[in-house]
Design a protein that fits this description.
This protein has seven helices and six strands; from the N terminus they run ααβαββαβαβαβα. By secondary structure, it is α/β, with parallel strands linked by helices. Helix 1 packs across helix 2, helix 4 packs parallel to helix 5 and helix 5 packs parallel to helix 6.
Length: about 190
């Protein structure tokens, strides 16, 4: 599926309308930052699939249902824009600070930010410092294991609160569809 283009993704919209990819990006209302670090390869999502596969399946549906409205940025060691709408490999660690720096130029432009992760960042202090520079609230979705009360889940709640955003969690590891849909429909 590496050369595939998800229906509703920015690449698909660009091809359908003849607009440039940059023009399609400017029309997106939400940047979804997806953690693609090594822990997303854990096979604890429903059906014993990886968190990454569960997230990818949900992304395909979300983009179809919200055609042209979601810009996907994947992050791990580094961040990368994925106009095809599919998660891409980008290292192994969880460099959330780098991901926020990557999308920071889109801050205060009317674009929403939803950060989806299953764990803690490489540097909580640096991530919070950059996050609090944002004028736009950062919404967070925790898609890791239910028993992680002190780690990634708590940090994502702290990050959302520090920026005036909302923090939600999935019903099971890797499931991002319903929580992201709720954030897309919310006013904040």
């Amino acid at each position: 599926m590496s050369n595939a283009i998800v229906p509703g993704s920015l690449s698909a919209i660009s091809q359908q309308t003849g607009a440039s990819l940059a023009e399609s990006f400017l029309l997106a209302s939400t940047i979804l930052l997806l953690d693609c670090s090594g822990s997303m390869e854990t096979s604890d999502a429903p059906g014993s699939i990886t968190r990454k596969k569960a997230a990818q399946d949900a992304l395909i549906r979300l983009q179809k249902d919200n055609a042209g409205k979601l810009a996907l940025v994947c992050f791990a060691q580094y961040a990368v824009f994925s106009p095809t709408g599919l998660p891409v490999e980008c290292g192994g660690s969880t460099n959330m600070a780098g991901a926020l720096k990557y999308v920071q130029p889109a801050d205060d432009t009317g674009t929403r930010f939803i950060l989806v992760s299953d764990g803690s960042p490489n540097s909580e202090q640096e991530t919070l410092k950059i996050a609090t520079e944002f004028k736009t609230p950062i919404q967070t979705v925790y898609i890791g294991p239910e028993l992680d009360y002190e780690g990634g889940r708590a940090f994502l709640e702290k990050l959302a609160k520090a920026t005036g955003g909302k923090a939600v969690k999935s019903d099971a590891p890797g499931l991002l569809g319903d929580p992201v849909e709720k954030l897309l429909l919310s006013k904040g």
